[in-house]
Here is the input.
Amino acid sequence: MKSMLPIVSLLFTFSAFAEEAPLKNFKVSGWGFVRHETKKDADYDSKLKDKTEATQTRINVSVKGDLAENYGHVFLAPQFSKISGQDEFASTGTSNTRSSTSGSLYDSRLDMHEAYFAIKPTKDERFYVFAGRQELAYGDHLVLGSVPWHRIGRSFDGARARYQFADNLTLDAFTMKLQENNSATNDLRGQDADFHGAYLMGSFGPYVKSADMYLLRKDNQKAGSFRDTSAYGLRFKSKIGESAFDYRIEGTLEQVRLAGESSIKESEYQYDVELGWTLPYYNTRVAMEYFDSSRDYDQLFPTAHKWVGFADQFSRRNLKGYVAHLSTSPIEKVTFFADYHIFQRHDSKRGAYNFAGNTLGNQGSSKDVAQELDLIVSYDFTKTLQLSYGYSWVMPGKYLKDQNASKTTDTNWSYLQLLARF
Here is the structure.
């Protein structure tokens, strides 16, 4: 079982700190889900007949306590995450062995998803510094998201400063440590993997209710395809005045250095455009989306599940596509969602990539990767309790079929989830 020492040590630190500056106004909230997922033929290979099935649990509790004299607050988010029945390494007193944690005498671990201080150095309500482990989630999560769908989610270790210039203009600047390479050695020549950024968020009237500009830098990556990435982006999202139409536009330019290469590619990019229309009945919205990402675009840290199909079969690299969106609520407390994706390769000389970022192959010249239909129906028992069912049907295109004669089988994915907030 994973050691609880880091969490216990952190709690003792807060306790000692509270003796000098007592915490007050404690607030406790949280959310979580239990979800059963099934995926069949994820490799599109009719000969293997693969199938995965699992039940996942995620419960996240947020604890916030204000510091004395209005200097800010302390935030903790312990989290329980588990695949039902999955064995874990548990301590036997003399060693760690792989043991069952369901129906046995071993409990599953409790981890710390977030733990940070939010300090106002000058007591200026416009200026905050967040130091510690924290989520980074901006815009529509297309470039930088916390992945709330995932059983664990994404958080970073580092520091972030926020300054609010006005009610409609806020700047975040952060530096995060992705991998520490010198903590156990005297070799000072090693380089840590870091992630830095500045993200400006604003609102400029009824036609531009949300406008973002960002600069991001990820460097010294030791694994994967990308070693260094610099990204510059713009995002605009808004209803169009008082009309029934809305839009979303986001574009990113990148300079990347690939693994094994010394030169920098300066022309990588992605853009994503969506136009929506809200109908006057049943809270119905229809929308069309087009996106394109160049052959060596680094998708950075998105909530990918939200953008390139719920089945999580593809990543946003050398991929372009068309998406039709529909959401409607014809019955009280019931909402239907439907997306239809057409995925294509941006460059037919380079392969498409799977969800983990691995190439799917380079055979053939067809650009047609796949088509995907996503359906979700949700029922809200209350404002804090929801039951939902989802189904995805991924139909391989000629590109995937060209990789292997047996890669002709559709991928089917489904889930049933109970979501609660408290």
User: Anything to note?
Assistant: The two ends are 28 Å apart (CA to CA).
